[in-house]
Amino acid sequence: MFDRYQAGEQAILVHLDFPDEDAREDLQEFEMLVSSAGIESLSVITGKRNTPHPKFYVGSGKADEIAEAVRLYDANVVLFNHSLSPSQEKNVEALCQCRVVDRTTLILDIFAQRARTHEGKLQVELAQLKHISTRLIRGWTHLERQKGGIGLRGPGETQLETDRRLLRERMVSIRKRLEKVERQRQQGRRARNRAEIPTVSLVGYTNAGKSTLFNHITKADVYAADQLFATLDPTLRKIEVEDVGRVILADTVGFIRHLPHDLVAAFKATLTETREAELLLHVVDIHDDRRSENIEQVEEVLAEIEADEVPQLIVCNKIDRLDDVEPRIDRDEHGLPIRVWLSAQAGVGIELLFQALAERLGKQIVKHCLKIPPSAGKFRGELYQLNCIAKEQYDEEGNCLVDVKLPAREWNRLIKQDKAVIEGFIEN
């Protein structure tokens, strides 16, 4: 049912330039999408139009050129770097006598190939079902249409209605299962909120290096490759940040120009980790000539998922590909870190990122001198677990004298356990 392509598929690529900036797509990015899908590009046909043609999207002459290229190269699929209507797909297919796929379907197919977790597969399937529901009628052009009159209804109409009903039932089933997964995620978030563990979410344009940075920071083994949408399923890991303590770092799917709305809607549950994070690490491929446009596209998607109000720290990645650029932290007029320059691949500047995280996430730091009696060894052990003891010595009575330095939220959590006893340890 789905437009799924195996490696070795051979395609003719079609790309048009429009004067309207909002309708314009990037050819180089499209070629990377095609490569990421495992499809071989035989030829690229380009052209210019002011507006799409209602019948073929391209002009009739350009459509004939595409059909000729299909016959010449013996291609088995035509890929458009644009979103086509069902009728336009059908018309070009009839002319070229081969499968026609638009940009949206291609992205959906890449997502289907990359999904690994149960939730990710459900989300991709839901997006595919939404997309294919508008294109069902193409599959039944060989059957009779409704003719009207008693006893003259063609079998195609009945089959079409059956397929639509099955699609609706499947979509309802997937939504229910995704709601269950979302409830489980909410329980996890509530537990982290109770423990006051902040969440930091990695966001950025696809192939900006988020997963490579995530692996370097967390020592995780998340799949990372120099291709679009290498990461699809969200991954959460705990890290330790000085003066902050435990932090949850979330790696998320990359964004892209004109990301299909069905995908954004399907992945909203996953992207809740981004919307409810304390800080966004916006990873930017600083070597990319289109970095300014990529940043704008990420900001648009963040606004669409209602995460544009979350504070951001820009991570200028891949400085190893630039000349005379050293790792550094850029600060605003108040001295707050706003940009960190590093290379995740080379492992350069990672310590500066941790420094910036400590400054951006660090709340009020509490310092106390405690006098802990020998009977409170368990409390002393908990202080060691928090790694907050700066200095330790013993008096003549065997009491442990410790200087502690820890975030206010950790200290407040300790006080909640037994306020009277712990406050009795504080030396004036």
Tell me what you see in this structure.
With 428 residues, the protein is an alpha/beta fold. 40% of the residues lie in helices and 21% in strands. The strands form 3 sheets. Strands 6-7-5-8-9-11-10 form a 7-stranded mixed sheet, sandwiched between helices. Strand 6 (235-241) and strand 7 form a beta hairpin. It is elongated.
Write the layout of secondary structure elements.
Layout: E1 9-17, H1 27-36, E2 39-48, H2 60-73, E3 77-80, H3 86-96, E4 99-101, H4 103-114, H5 118-132, H6 155-194, E5 199-204, H7 210-218, E6 235-241, E7 245-251, H8 261-266, H9 272-275, E8 279-285, H10 291-304, E9 312-317, E10 328-331, E11 337-341, H11 350-361, E12 365-372, H12 377-385, E13 389-394, E14 400-407, H13 408-417, H14 419-425
Parallel strand pairs: 1-2, 1-3, 3-4, 5-7, 5-8, 8-9, 9-11
Antiparallel strand pairs: 6-7, 10-11, 12-14, 13-14
Helix pairs in contact: 1-4, 4-5, 5-6, 13-14
Tally of alpha and pi helices: 14
- Biggest β-sheet description: 7 strands, mixed
Cα-atom radius of gyration: 28 Å
Helix content: 40-55%
What form results from the Cα inertia axes?
Answer: elongated
In terms of quaternary structure, the protein is single chain
End-to-end distance: 74 Å
| Average predicted local confidence, pLDDT | 79
How many strands in all?
14
